[in-house]
Amino acid sequence: MSKDILAAVHSYASRKGYVVLDSQLSLFEQSLANLSLLAELALPDSPHKPAIKVFRTPLALDRLTAEHFQMARSLIHDKSVSFIAFTNNGTEYRTIATIGSGTGSIGFIPSAPKNGGGSSLDDLRPFLSIYELRLLVSRLSDSIFATQGHDRLKLFDTILMLLAAKIYDEIENPRDLYLSQCLRKRGQDLQDDFQSFCQTALENMGCGSFDIKLYLDPDTLLASLELVAPYSFRLTAEIGAQTEILATFYQEIVSSTFRGSLGAYFTPKPIADLAVEISSPSPDDDILDMTCGSGTFLLSAFTYAQNRNNLISSDKPRLFGCDIQERMVLTTVLNSYLHGVYRPHIISGDALQLDLGNWNAVDSSVPVEGFSLIVGNPPFAGFESESYLPYNHKHKALSAQRGTGARVNKIIPFIVKTVQLLRPGGKAALVIPTSVLNGEAATFTDLRHWLSSEVKITAIIGLPRDAFVHTDCGIEGALLFFEREPAPRDEAKVFFVTIANVGYDRRGRVIPDSEIETVVNIWTTGMETDKHWLDLDELYQLDRWDPTWLEGYTSGLTFNPQTHIRLTDICKVVKRRLSRQEIQPDAIYTYFEVGDTDIDSGRIKQTHSIKGSDLPQKGRLQIPVREGDILLPNHRDSLIAKTAAATGRSVVLVTSKENGYITSNRFTVLKPLIHPNILMFLLNSSFVRQQLVLYARGSASFDVRDKVLDQIWIPRKFIEDKVLQSKILEALKNKEQIQRQLDETESYLNQLMEALNS
Q: Which residues neighbour 80 within 8 Å (Cβ) at sequence distance 6 or greater?
């Protein structure tokens, strides 16, 4: 029997283009199912030459379990093997990827690619590496561009259509692939038939109304189909271990196209995965993303629930999505299919107008009682009518007094809608701008007040300043987690933390030492003795919720008048502005900006001249300076800039030379009430800088408002200790002398170099 099976394997391998690497019979014998390593095959024409270990088993293939797979894997010394195959007759095979849980399976051994593809799914092969997929798309793009010269958006539409047709064909016609028939057609017949098939595919995917065209002439269409025909997206997804290949590729091609052509932005996958891990979705969840984009959040949640619960089903958890752009709906649907989700519920429309009753009328799967989990990255930019808000707010009353319609930041009604679409006890995980957490505007403070009565905040995670820079979004963001649970919330706590490293840099390149795993561990273990936990009732009583502020608040960066005095007790804020009426159009003004000052010493290194008529175009040049002014950089980036002393960009002392110059409102002007050098020393100290950074607010631009200075504290002992001040002044004088010597030495060295070159 074994020899017959081995002969069948050899015959099969020969037909499929495999190479038999090892044909020894019964290398291993195990009591479990009497597994025997029958042969080892190598797939030709692949950059990585993946091997397939073939095991003989007397069991019927549908009786094999994960235990059998794990046993087979334990017999393999080479852990780089891509697939394990089981057979009991040399004709039928059950093949499983060696990476992952070992429960996902497909009923075939992947065949070598053949020119023209094949007539059935068994004749196709999955993508075994991101390299292969990128190579295919590169060739496809080159072919289309070379003959058609299309713009990037049309190219993307074309690839979308090809993907839709290919995936639909593999799902609906696995035994008799339509594309294999197409390859035998030519000219207009090919173009008409394929366009009709594409429309059928879109209709069956719920995207039949979308006006997306296939921009290909017959010859280019044929060449494109010949490129994609040998491969199978369905098999790549069903293998399970290859899902990351499709996800990575899809995120790259989708995000690059839509950033440039449609102004759409996408959440980087590590952030979506972090949000999902904290949310911990289960197979029983109904998961919604109101602005689903390419489906990153939904598919991350689906993959998490599947892997965590060792599932191979494609219908749990149930995924629901909405996006205002039709292309994004199709993009999410295709991404779902590529992940093995063949029943996503994705619609096009304005999420703020979602009505679950109406949606349920056309799709009975929609839960009218609300969703158990809502995830996503709602839009940050733009404004919406206040009519979406179920509560009155101060901004609305002010607008009514002025006779204008109230409009609020777009993120606010999206957060409100999220709460409304959750079922009781449902959870949410949203990417939000930090202004939601720290904004002083009435619209933001009223939102926080409303949330405190409607939901239980469970976690707030601050993201790096550059987390979204490579997606062309300069807003600083955070992750907000909450449950729809009314009061009382006895002994509830909220988890808060700021992450500095999420595993990629400002260009999106992977970097080591990501803090995500550490954060997830603190959350999942519930280490309430850790510094990152706060009583929920206490959070709701605070003016702001951003993690940076909360970390300072809980670590004791707040003081009292018995031990400290306010910064404004030793200096005064000067409200001085140059009005447009004062500007003389023909006069020449001298100015300097923040970057014109030495980052370490604060000395003004250079100045510029500008005609009065051009001065209004320099919007931030508003402050005329006077001798003795101390200029405090008031933007957070300046306060935390990397300097020699590691305390941020230095304050500036205006001398008689700069008296009357103009400078930027990125400085706050202070008049010292103590020795100016002592005040400068304090303003440059890490003790004061930490407080200033703590009070900075915003999301796109973090500023320290003038009124904040009244909340900055100085140790009373420092001001009262004159001996200490004398020592500091003497040390500062010595430092200045040393700096002059260094400058003179540097100048002398430069002169020597110039003499060598003369």
A: 51
What would the pLDDT profile of 653-711 be if each residue is shown by its tens digit? 999 999 999 999 999 999 999 999 999 999 999 889 988 888 887 766 667 888 889 88
542 in a structural domain: no
Distance of CA 687 to the CA centre of its chain: 33
Considering the domain architecture, whether residues 177 and 106 belong to the same structural domain is answered as no
Contacts of 684 (CB under 8 A, 6+ apart): 645, 647, 648, 650, 651
SS in 3 state form for 649-711? CCCEECCHHHCCCEEECCEEEEEECCCHHHHHHHHHCHHHHHHHHHHCECCCCCECCHHHHHH
pLDDT at 531 over 90: no
Write out pLDDT tens, residues 215-241: 788 988 998 999 888 888 887 776 654
User: What pLDDT digit, counting tens, does each position of 111-161 carry?
Assistant: 444 444 568 887 787 776 666 777 787 788 787 777 666 667 777 788 888
- Please report the pLDDT score of residue 579 as a whole number: 86
Q: Is 340 exposed, middle or buried (0-12, 13-18, 19+ CB in 10 A)?
A: buried
Question: Hey, what long-range contacts does 192-201 have (CB within 8 A, 24 or more apart)?
Answer: 194/165, 194/221, 194/225, 197/165, 197/169, 198/161, 198/164, 198/165, 200/168, 201/164, 201/165, 201/167, 201/168, 201/169
C-alpha distances in Å from residue 373, one per residue of 217, 281, 419, 426: 45, 7, 10, 6
Q: Number of folded domains in the chain?
A: 4
Q: Could you tell me if residue 72 is left (phi over 0), alpha (psi between -120 and 50 degrees) or otherwise beta? A: alpha
Q: Which of 62-66, 147-151, 196-200, 341-345 has the least mean pLDDT?
A: 147-151
Are residues 13 and 74 both part of a single domain?
A: yes
Query: 8 with 60, same domain?
Result: yes
When the pLDDT of each residue in the chain is averaged and rounded to a whole number, the result is 83
DSSP state of 410: T
Longest dimension (CA), the chain: 102
Boundary (domain end) residue, out of 237, 268, 299: 237
Cβ–Cβ < 8 Å for 693, 548: yes
Residues forming a β-bridge with 510: 504
Tokens in use for 728?
């500091």
Contact criterion met (CB below 8 Å) for 560 and 716 = no
Tell me the C-alpha distance between 17 and 685, whole Å.
71
CA-CA distance, 237 to 251, in Å (whole number)?
Answer: 15
Whether 577 and 682 share a structural domain: yes
**Distance of alpha carbon 443 from alpha carbon 435, whole angstroms:** 10
Mean pLDDT of 27-34: 51
Cα distance between residue 307 and residue 317, in whole Å: 12
pLDDT over 60 (residue 47): no
